[in-house]
Amino acid sequence: MASSATTGNCSATTATTYLLLDLNGNLHVGDQPTPNAIEALSRLSGLAQSTLSSGRQLRISFCSNSSKESTQTLVSRLRRMGFTDEEAMPEGSVFTSLDAARRLLVSGQKKRRTLLLLNEDAMQSFQDEDAEGRQSRYFKPPQSTLPADLNESQQSALQSCDSVLIGLAPDLMRYEWLTEAFRVLTGEYASKDHHQEERPDPLLVATHSGRCLRPGDGGPLALGPGPFVQALAHAADLGEDKVICVGKPERAFFAQCLEGMGWKRREGSEDQAWIVGDDARQDLSLPQLKNGEEDPLQGLKVRRGLVKTGKYREGDEEKVEGGGSGDVGVWDSFAHWVDDFVREWKSCDNQ
Questions:
Q1: No. of H helices and E strands in the chain?
Q2: What residues make up the domain containing 158?
Q3: What is the pTM of this model?
């Protein structure tokens, strides 16, 4: 099943089409590829390879809100699922919300110290860049430990934090650790700062604001990090500028993915992008721009494909927001989307 979003959209002979493909729910659900996804991705990769010497090019990237494991672990798991074609999924082609969060936390002029409410594996994405001997920029809660059980040194490190990063970390989404996050965000510990240095304003960073997810075993939906982010923002009375979501569907996240693929905003460009995923809100809905905010995707035609796998529920296509009318299509699976995309691409070549 597809909508009219697949027809009449041939790009110029000098334009580039960028594919931003969701992973879990689109190419795979849990540890199982979606039907014919591996073969479909290889077809797509072959098409992209064939355009390298032409003016009209195709580039592919994988953009994921995955925050339960490091990008390296995620790629290794994809290989075990059968996505072993390194031309179809090369190293460096997977960009996650953890990657975006790390860039944000190290980009400020003032050095932040961040409480990481992440799974142990996901914490591998946050390695200190300071010279040996300096205080860590991250506090990583020891697994299976409550705040009351921390030693004096750990307590001091926790209380020196001025920001909180939340991802998918079920074991840490409990009262004791959420209370510590609340204390960091309200400046409760600021008066105890023995370093006598000015702290940056508190900041709450979310890998994404997803309300729910489909567990790897295909079981019932489970809570995502979004509800916990909202609870902390409300409890700490944080303004909009003190709560930052770095993952999908933020326009800045997609722009970072595109820039990693070589995209640059050009006046009069006919470049276009496809965003394909299973979540109408988190994968496909582009947030409204705030007053005076510049669109990081300006000049790029964005088309979106919703697949009926993963978290999809009947009627989800009505929940896609932002963008222009007629730019959203619905397919039974990623493989079905690839069938139509390849057919359209070749049809355009013959015009």
A1: 8, 15
A2: 101-245
A3: 0.85
